[in-house]
Amino acid sequence: MKIEFSSPLSNVENIIDSLKNKEGSLLPILHAIQKEVGYIAPQAIERIAIKLKQTPAEIHGVISFYHQFRTSPPAKYKIQICRAEACQSRGSRQLEVHAKSFLNIDYHQMTSDKKFSLDSVYCLGNCATGPNIRINDDLYGRISNEKFEQVLSNVDRELK
Ligand code: FES
Question: Which UniProt keywords apply (predicted)?
Fold first, then answer.
């Protein structure tokens, strides 16, 4: 996944052009742009609005309705905590409380240094080893409060 919105206005144009004539094209366009660029920049919103003959405010309205869409670059490490039943029965609720406190953020937020963001997810397909978290594409199981801090510390060390 590319993080920076460097050249990609042409990529964004191509995405919009390839999807704009499909019924209900806005959500697929938003998903595709976020997948390609990492977020939906103001310039992209302008281009979508023009090509779909809507106002930027209308596009913003849809983006803000869905938590998964971002209008700014994502955190370096995206943490997701599984909230589905098996992980809940193994302590994910307590882990959520600890994670929010440890990072000093709530769900759908990122730390002030932009290293970590926190979101929930419903089942990572690894139920037997709950509570589970995913950091970017990596799964971590049997996450106690202590192990959460340890995993983040290891990830943070890799950042330096
Ligand atoms: S319930 Fe958490 S991985 Fe399935």
Answer: 2Fe-2S, Iron, Iron-sulfur, Metal-binding
